[in-house]
Amino acid sequence: MRLSIHALLDYLIDDEADILLQIEAAEDEAAQRIIDGTMTASTTSELRPIPVEAGIGRRTWARGSGPFRVEYHATVDVERPATDISRLGATPHYALPGEAVPFLWPSRYCQSDQFARFVAETFGAFEGGAKILAMADWINSQLAYVPGSSDASTSAADTFISRKGICRDYAHLLISFARAAGIPARMVSAYAWALEPQDFHAVTEVWLDGGWHMIDATRLAPVEGLVPIVAGRDATDIAFMTIFGRADLREQTVTVTRLD
Fold first, then answer.
1. Which residues pair with 190 in a beta bridge?
2. pLDDT at 56
3. I need a labelling partner for 188 at 20 to 30 A (CA). Which of 10, 80, 155, 203 fits?
4. Domain regions of the chain by residue span
5. Exposure string over 22-34, b if 16+ CB within 10 A, otherwise e
6. Are 146 and 165 in contact (CB under 8 A)?
């Protein structure tokens, strides 16, 4: 499908601050092709792109003071058919490539070591992709999607206790479960067609049978309409905008429209 993407971030920055942006759709020859893409920012400083450690997408440094407005427009062709992962096997640890190994371990928001016993007792009868799907089913049935129920400090352990959250919380919990079972898992920020209300979306990727496979535990958007931006260990790595200073939000919108 061909998608039109527009993102607007409008902030008022106190004094002068460094800003790290992660809002450009990632290039991926296998699943999505960027037909055109432009990011503009109301700043006199030069925008400085840098790579992301996980190899998906890029970050961009900027500087700003006072009114700071960023807009991103893109047209993207997406060819990402929904994949049945139930028959995919888990890769033995000794066979994992370097890109997957860092995503075996606990991280700031994904305390996978705290879930080892629960995961073994609850999902021990499943293997590989079937285990991941069972985890996603459990999360979807046990959690309530409640906007405003979590904040920047909410971890997977917090979500497990409260049984509510938003997309990032669903993803953090699924990542934690997968890592507790010895399956590499990472967090992906994405634009999402058919997501209501429209916003930046967070999903999970797991390493199965030699490759990354995307899972949305919220089930709020079809996987075939997702456009990844960046990937990382958890929300720490994928924030769409990080301001190293003080700022107030004035306006923020995301629009994803299907063109074909």
1. 201, 228
2. 85
3. 10
4. 2-79+240-258, 93-237
5. bbbbbebeebbeb
6. yes
Instruction: Extract the tokens encoding 148.
Output: 């405003």
Distance CA 10, CA 69 (A): 4
Q: How far is CA 142 from CA 45, 120, 168, in A?
A: 47, 18, 16
- For 93-237, CATH gives 3.10.620.30
Question: Could you give phi then psi for residue 212, rounded to 5 degrees?
Answer: -85, 140
Joined together, the tokens standing for residue 25 give 């759709």
- Residue 173 backbone zone (phi > 0: left; psi -120 to 50: alpha; other: beta): alpha
Whether omega for the bond prior to residue 197 falls within 30 degrees of 0, making it cis, is yes
Please give the DSSP secondary-structure letter assigned to residue 197: S
Condensed to tens digits (0 to 9), the pLDDT of residues 101-159 reads 999 999 999 999 999 999 999 999 999 999 999 999 999 999 999 999 999 999 999 99
Q: Which string of b and e fits 160-190 if b means at least 16 CB within 10 Å?
A: beeebbbbbbbbbbbbbbbbbbbbbbbbbbb
For 36, phi then psi, to 5°, come to -155, 150
d(CA 21, CA 47): 10
